[in-house]
């Protein structure tokens, strides 16, 4: 142990500093790509299957196909990206 960091006036048994000394940082939200979100949504839909998705959502399988064709998942991806929500499998 040749080097040890110095702690300034620890306030508890672990040596942590009080929150008043913490640095507040404003972080920019990550760039979220709606195309990537749409890809995740469609890949996940393909993996669970349109039939099981339709049954779970209480819609017909043809409605799921129509939604894919009409860009429903594209619009959903754009909304999620705007709101800063990422989709992950």
Automatic annotation (TrEMBL):
<dbReference type="GO" id="GO:0006355">
    <property type="term" value="P:regulation of DNA-templated transcription"/>
</dbReference>
<dbReference type="Pfam" id="PF05269">
    <property type="entry name" value="Phage_CII"/>
</dbReference>
<dbReference type="InterPro" id="IPR010982">
    <property type="entry name" value="Lambda_DNA-bd_dom_sf"/>
</dbReference>
<protein>
    <submittedName>
        <fullName>Uncharacterized protein</fullName>
    </submittedName>
</protein>
<dbReference type="GO" id="GO:0003677">
    <property type="term" value="F:DNA binding"/>
</dbReference>
<dbReference type="InterPro" id="IPR007933">
    <property type="entry name" value="Transcrpt_activ_CII"/>
</dbReference>
């Amino acid at each position: 142990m040749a080097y040890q960091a110095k702690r300034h006036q620890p306030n508890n048994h672990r040596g942590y500093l009080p929150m008043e000394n913490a640095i507040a940082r404003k972080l920019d939200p990550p760039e979220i790509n709606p195309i990537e979100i749409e890809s995740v949504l469609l890949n996940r839909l393909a993996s669970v299957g349109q039939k099981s998705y339709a049954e779970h959502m209480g819609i017909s399988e043809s409605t799921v196909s129509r939604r894919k064709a009409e860009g429903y998942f594209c619009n959903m991806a754009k909304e999620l990206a705007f709101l800063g929500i990422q989709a992950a499998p």
